[in-house]
TrEMBL record:
Organism annotation: Pelobates cultripes
Protein name: Uncharacterized protein
């Protein structure tokens, strides 16, 4: 069973905490890290969406090619028999 995706808030908190652990406690840096985390999350989601779109487009092309192949075979069966 797939794990439920984290919410944006949970995701952002996790990213900020990871980065703060690298830099050490620094309250003045926390706001900047929150903004960077927001940007990173948006970029990751946009990338994920583009991958999903590319996968769907590839499926559509594959289906179209298969349809064209089957149509060609049907024409050959129908009109090849009359030759």
């Amino acid at each position: 069973m797939a794990e439920a995706p984290t919410t944006t808030g949970d995701e952002k908190t996790r990213i900020v905490q990871e980065r703060l652990s690298l830099y050490g406690p620094n309250p003045s840096m926390e706001q900047q890290l929150m903004e960077e985390a927001d940007e990173d999350i948006q970029k990751a989601r946009a990338h994920e969406l583009s991958l999903v779109t590319a996968h769907r487009n590839a499926d559509a092309v594959s289906t179209s090619l298969r349809y064209a192949e089957l149509t060609q075979q049907l024409w050959q069966l129908l009109y090849g028999a009359r030759s």
